[in-house]
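P.,

For your records, the input lines for the assembly:
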Amino acid sequence: MNFLTLIGIEFKKIRRSKILLILAVAAVILWVPSILNAKMNFGMQAVGISPENNFFIQGFLGMAWFMFPASMVVGTVLLSQTEKANKGILKMLALPISTAKLCMAKFVVLLTLAAIQILMMTGMYYISAAISSRTQDYSFILPTLFVLKEIGLIFLSAIPMIAFFWMLSVCIQTPIFSIGIGLASIVPSVLIINTKVWFAYPMSYPFFVITSEYGKLATNLDTAQVELIPWIPVAIVITIIALGISCLRFGQAERR
Amino acid sequence: MSVSLECKKVKRTGFLSAFLGGGILAAAFPVVNMVVRSEQYLNLPDTPIQILFGANWQIMAMLNVLLVVAGTCLLYHTEYADNAMQKMKALPIRESSIFLGKTVLTIFMSLFVLVIEAGAVAFCSYHWFEIGNGFLGELCKYFGYSFLLMLPCIILSLLISEACKNMWISLGIGVVCVFTATMLPTNDFVLSLFPFAMPFQVFAGPDVTQAMHYIYAIIAELVVLCLAQLSFVKIRRAFE
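Structure tokens returned:
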């Protein structure tokens, strides 16, 4: 079986999982306060950011801080529990497929879920921006190219974090610990982005990236800017180590 | 009977150690915060507990709520994972008494977590501030109030986990609810009555009228949630 077929099979497994519904609800809830408080975007002169940029950035800050990482933890639970529920994983491991391939196929599914969630957020952003433009008589809609660049940045910066969560769920068999460590590791990222060692903490990457974008858009606000040199190599190393460990450990507990 | 049974069930699931670890993590928060930037807090006019709560409670409450959500998901996951729930339903006990056992267990563990956190706050006050008269009473008031505020959140997340057979759905709903709670403004009374938003409230000092409003709301929510649980079990039985 080639890799693409495997990914297709993994998608079939989660077809009836209702995960997309949860992601969609999260996206809707994220933007409702922005629509209701659209007027507040005009009072940001002190920071020096234009209302349409503020509308966009506030929504995505809320997403990158908690909702997006937490949804990825839920995604790892989905991928590991669907297999464990009726011992499906034993059947998969009995097939002549390399476990590393199986593990990577599941990781690709997780990445796709991340991409779907970001796209849902973007779709909801356009809808809520259109509604707010109507209610406030001011165009909140930003050019598509700019929005695409920002969401692309968020997605790319989230890959090490997702790899880390995937490693947690593969290596830790007790579900409460993989969930607990995953969720608990999100919370301190608010503090870590203010320190110098943020690049060593993959859970803070998406939030850091969007915060530094905020600093770029707001003329009177100085936020730490992305420094590519320690960050990119460290991020790549973290991703490779996390994926390597999860590929090695995948199915080990069942094969004992 | 059913509480001790629940205790036996969670023995090897890591439930107890997760609450212990979560409690220690949340308790480490004010300590680390004081070690790193104590000069920001030392010269404030409030009492030590007010300062520490103002600086750290949002994060600590968030960890508490996440712990409750993850813990309750696990409690029902162990029942649904290998169809243990069907065996439980065949026994001559009511489904609501299983729920009650799990509730008592979770409430007890949350109390345990809050005691660890209270210890950390007491340590911070002792080490960095001066402990005045009536410190212990104030500490008990703050944490007792936080404990009451956590009760509706515990019951509601248990109810969600009971309703969903798959863990990712109950966890997903829980996470979305926590996220909604973080988006709600804490100074709006009606909106902060959302059970998941309540633990983010802080005891408002000497003026107790505000606190009493919340306590009445907690009692009302508990009654509603318990009725919802009883009727939910009955209705689901009818359709299974």
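Two observations worth noting. The mean pLDDT of chain A is 89. The interface with chain B takes residues 17-19, 22, 25-26, 29-30, 33, 62, 66-67, 70-71, 73-75, 77-78, 81, 84-85, 174-177, 179-180, 183-184, 187-188, 190 of chain A (CB under 8 Å).

Regards
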